[in-house]
Amino acid sequence: MTWDEAREKEVDRLEEQLSVFHRRSRRFLRTFASRVHPGIDAGTYAVLLVIAQAGPLRLNDLAEEFGLDKSTMSRHVSTLIRLGLVQRDPDPLDGRAFLLTPSPDGLHRLAAATDARRGEWRGRLDGWGTGELAEFVTALTRLNTDLERRRPTQP
Predict the structure, then answer these.
(1) Who contacts 76 (Cβ-Cβ below 8 Å, separation ≥6)?
(2) What backbone phi and psi angles, to 5 degrees, belong to 154?
(3) Distances in Å between the alpha carbon of 24 and those of 18, 31, 49, 110, 132?
(4) What pLDDT digit, counting tens, does each position of 37-69 carry?
(5) pTM here?
(6) Every domain of the chain and the residues it spans
(7) Rounded mean pLDDT of 104-129?
(8) Phi, psi of 36 (to 5 degrees)
(9) Domain 15-149: assigned CATH number
């Protein structure tokens, strides 16, 4: 596919809107993080969501998923463990590693926050038709797939 000036402008618009979306989604997540536990921030809440959705996971896998170094991810995970929201169990495939899963309390608190979050989404997307929402989710899924498949090279 060729890149002309109009297409380049659309990429600029995409970058701008993704930046706005990132800022607003962090604010959105911060609201629900405090519903799970007052001791977690939006970033730690996002880590808990990924552990609940994709777990059990190793710390290294989480760090890679978020594009963070292991020490930063370790701080998020340590907070979740200290608050009793995540448990750390030995990895049966590697005695040196641990697998992270939500604790029963973490799952319970997350379920309550998820119900509230879904209610908020319903309110914000009330003006969207089902077809519009499906098209957007399909396009976003495609973008996420392409972003994962074509990761930038590390400097």
Answers:
(1) 43, 44, 47, 62
(2) -75, 140
(3) 10, 11, 17, 20, 21
(4) 998 998 999 999 999 999 899 999 999 999 899
(5) 0.79
(6) 15-149
(7) 93
(8) -75, -50
(9) 1.10.10.10
Tell me, what DSSP letter sits at residue 106?
H
Q: Are 32 and 116 in contact (CB under 8 A)?
A: yes
Give the three-class secondary structure for 155: coil
Closest by CA position to 110, among listed 23, 58, 22, 44: 44
Cβ neighbors of 81 (< 8 A, separation 6 or more) are 87, 88
Residue 27 corresponds to which tokens in the numbers above? Answer: 């604010």
Give the DSSP letter string of 68-98.
Answer: --HHHHHHHHHHHHHTTSEEEEEETTEEEEE
Measured in whole angstroms, the distance separating CA 17 from the mean position of its chain's CA atoms is 18
Q: Assess whether pLDDT exceeds 80 at residue 155.
A: no
pLDDT at residue 152 in the model? 64
Q: What is the mean pLDDT of the chain?
A: 91
Q: How many helices (H) and strands (E) does the chain have?
A: 6, 2
Q: Does pLDDT of 116 surpass 60?
A: yes
